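agent> Task received from the user: take the single chain below, predict its 3D structure, and emit structure tokens. No templates, no multimer pairing.
agent> Plan: (1) validate residues, (2) run structure prediction, (3) serialize to tokens, (4) report one or two observations.
agent> Step 1 OK, no nonstandard residues flagged.
tool_call: predict_structure(input=
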Amino acid sequence: MNTLSKWYIAIAIVAVTIATYALQFTDIHGRWQLLYRGNYGYEFRFYKNYQAVCIIYMQTNAVVFKGVYTFDNPQTIRININQMKNTDSCCNVNTTTGFAQVKSSHFLFNAELITKNHKKMLELKPLSIVIDGINSEGYFEPVIVLQRM
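)
tool_result: status=success, residues=149
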């Protein structure tokens, strides 16, 4: 086998390894944010006990969703939502009380860990956003790149 063939094999192995990297629960534990000027943005909190909190900041208020997350497949995060609330403040959002129960609600994201400017980022692409059985895709941008906090 010549040197050129060895390089092609090595490159193919690296490409397959990168393409098939499966996200693990430990990869996403923690707090992830994407905040824009004017108090707009997103925050996702993934806890070790599989609980998840998603906060959507909308200038003067926020919408908070609570649920349980899992992986539908190695690149797809599913958050089964069981509680939500609207708050009149986007600062110091209370994530423990004041929630209403919701049914038939979930967020499904294609997820990938990426490196941007030498920082680990979580890239989420919404696949299905359902709240109380109603398609609610307008809550999220097509691609959300979150920074670990």
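agent> Step 4: summary for the user.
The helical segments are 3-19, 25-28.
agent> Done.
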